[in-house]
Amino acid sequence: MPDFILGAYAGVIASIIVIFIIFLFNRYITLRLKKTLHVGQDLSGNWRANFSSEQLDFNKAELSLQQYGHEIKGRLSLIKESKENDNSKLIYGLEGLSVDRLFMARFKRTKVSTSSSGTLLLDSSLVNETLIGLICISSKLNETCSIKLDFEKC
Fold it and tell me: Quick one: 1 and 61 in the same domain?
């Protein structure tokens, strides 16, 4: 076989190996390094808040968070609970950052034809494991509302 064909095969194989190593590094090692070097609070877990609002039909919010260093991903659920068993739930995908005691995130509904999105700004307290802050929701109709929430870890 000519040398240039062997060189081409070697180049393709080397490229595949390098791409695989970069994938492994970004997928596993970087996440572990971020988690190890992070010195702030760990907000991972489930959080729950009860609230009342004239602007929204919902009376309960739940957060499910996973934190990797400063980056936080998770799910926000707004729940309407009533005595008549007329319960409903909106689920949002959530991505944000944690810096010192502040947690800032954007959320957006997924897999639904009606779109709404919003911003979540929370201040965390280590003493009694609470997240206190505001949630701002806007829908496709440009209706916006802000609600004060007090999340407790559950």
Answer: no
The amino acid occupying position 100 is: D
In terms of domains, do 113 and 54 share one?
A: yes
Residue-number span of the structural domain to which 69 is assigned: 45-153
pLDDT for 104-121, tens place per residue?
899 888 766 566 788 888
pLDDT, tens digit, for every residue of 39-90? Answer: 667 788 899 998 877 777 788 889 999 988 788 899 998 888 777 766 788 8
- Please state, in angstroms and rounded to a whole number, the distance separating the CA atoms of residues 70 and 43: 10
Residue 79 shares a structural domain with residue 148 = yes
Give the span between the Cα atoms of 135 and 8, in whole angstroms. Answer: 56
Q: Cα–Cα distance between 96 and 70 in angstroms, integer?
A: 8
Is beta strand 71-80 parallel, antiparallel or unpaired with respect to 88-99? antiparallel
